[in-house]
Amino acid sequence: MKFEAATIKDIAKALGLSTSTVSRALRDSHEISEETKKLVLKYAAQINYRPNPIALSLKEKRSRSIGVIVTEIANSFFSQAINGIESVAKERGYNVIISQSHESFEKEVQTLNYLSSRSIDGLLISVSAATKDLEHLRALHDRGFPIVFFDRIVEDIQTHKVVIENFRGAYDATMHLLQNGYRNIACITASENLSISRERIAGYVEALAHKQLKPSKSLIKYCPNGGMELAEVEQAVSQLLKLRPRPDAIFTTGDKLTTGCLRVLRARNVSIPGDIALVGFSNSDLIELMNPPLTVVRQPAFEMGEVATDLLLQLIESKRPVKDFERRILTTSLIVNESGNRK
């Protein structure tokens, strides 16, 4: 049997009222008596009546839905950011449609086309590692479609952007290793296309320069999929372990890269931090339960989701075209544990 949602006509027929009376009662109109309102609301609750969102969107010229594209929901950073997004959206009466690009440009384009065809009011996006061609985003933006970038941003499109202190977070992590006596520090990062990769590498290089050190290109390894595939982390670590002299520490620039590197080093029986220290970006709630507990750069992911959503809703609800855009920069924190300390 096909499910059919209850309608105003169903309520009107059951109660012997006109559809216009039921409609006004549901809107709490002053034209309808309190007794009739109570009768209508009670029956509507009994049959689980809900307003038709399509009809409402046609009336308001707004779907009250926003789209979100991230690389992977399972990534602890993005899952926390999504919680922040949903908290603000729910409070403001918006639904959230979440999609994953899995670091694929083709999937990102396909997902964006699908979401925009579903009449969402705006989009929050953290671009994939493979995204170089921006035409799919620029085409929507040029037509006035509200877009806000967060975490992995696009500089060439003028809109609101929410990021963290990528340079400072990487600088602080690398300086922690240097202050603990490590000097031959390697870096494993994501795709060179990403803004976060470039900024975090810059922070790493600046910290080394502070101690008059300059890393060789062989110490910087790129993982195009950001560690989503363990094989690329295994390859990066294997190449580093073959270097002579071997690195005495590794700095990783992303959640999956950090936990993946820990797994690979442990599988190779490399003692952490006895043989090689490990410090990296991670928002995992399990860092203190890992062996050893990890020293990590923690990002304010939930706050980032909140801020990005608030900025997007400002664009959506503005009565006039917005021409002045903000770049919000949120502060990171270094959580010090055993993995980056000299034994």
From TrEMBL:
Gene3D superfamilies: 3.40.50.2300, lambda repressor-like DNA-binding domains (1.10.260.40)
Keyword set, alphabetical order: DNA-binding, Transcription, Transcription regulation
Residue ranges occupied by any HTH lacI-type domain in the UniProt entry: 6-60
Entries under Pfam families matching the protein: LacI, Peripla_BP_1
Domain of life of the source: Bacteria
Signal peptide bounds: none
Listed name of the protein: LacI family transcriptional regulator
Organism of derivation: Chitinophaga horti
